[in-house]
Amino acid sequence: MKGFLKIIFWVSGGIAVLFLMFIFFFRMSMEGNDTKLEEITREANVYVKEKFQKKMTVLESIYDSGGNFPYFDYAAKVRSDEDENLVFFVFYNEKTEQLEDSYVSSKWEKALQRDLTPYLKKEWGTIENLSVFYDERVGYKLNIDANKIPEYHQVNEKPTILFAVPRKKDSKDEEHFNKTIDFIKNQLNVKHAHISVNYMKNGGILESEGFIKDF
What we know:
Layout: H1 2-31, H2 34-51, E1 56-63, E2 74-80, E3 86-93, E4 98-101, H3 103-124, E5 128-133, H4 138-141, E6 160-165, H5 173-187, E7 194-201, E8 204-205, E9 211-214
Parallel strand pairs: 6-7
Antiparallel strand pairs: 1-2, 2-3, 3-4, 5-6, 7-8, 7-9
């Protein structure tokens, strides 16, 4: 009987250890390595002082546990105090083996979203979750001076534009979609883009199909 209890004790202890190890590695996979988080924060503080003429403030470091960003796992979030509190990333790109930033893409994303929002509200009524994305490395691709950035409509780059309409589909929505594309092309002078419109409200899907187009 005592032998059986010992076996139960050791098995239970082993399971507890495995469970604690699982919790530890799960937290590591979600939260990242503290040393690497501290390292990117230190490096970002030096980087922004050397690269930018404007005042920049390093806010925090993040770990991309979900694989959402193709160029980094660890990054520092930085605020440009002179750009309406624009937030961008500073990160170490393992492919180029250097520190880089997403300042140009973040600046264009914010500007395009600002210019597009009033029209979308006028054309579609209420909209939700408007998001605009440029490639994080677009500034390096085009060799842009971070202190002399052109406007988004002065370059031939392709953003991704996503938004949701919080109602059921209407018979006039295809016309709204085509007019939105015309506005982006001819009024905002963005000649190429990927645009997707979904029908969602508070995270719930209202229609199985929306509108999508590359131009």
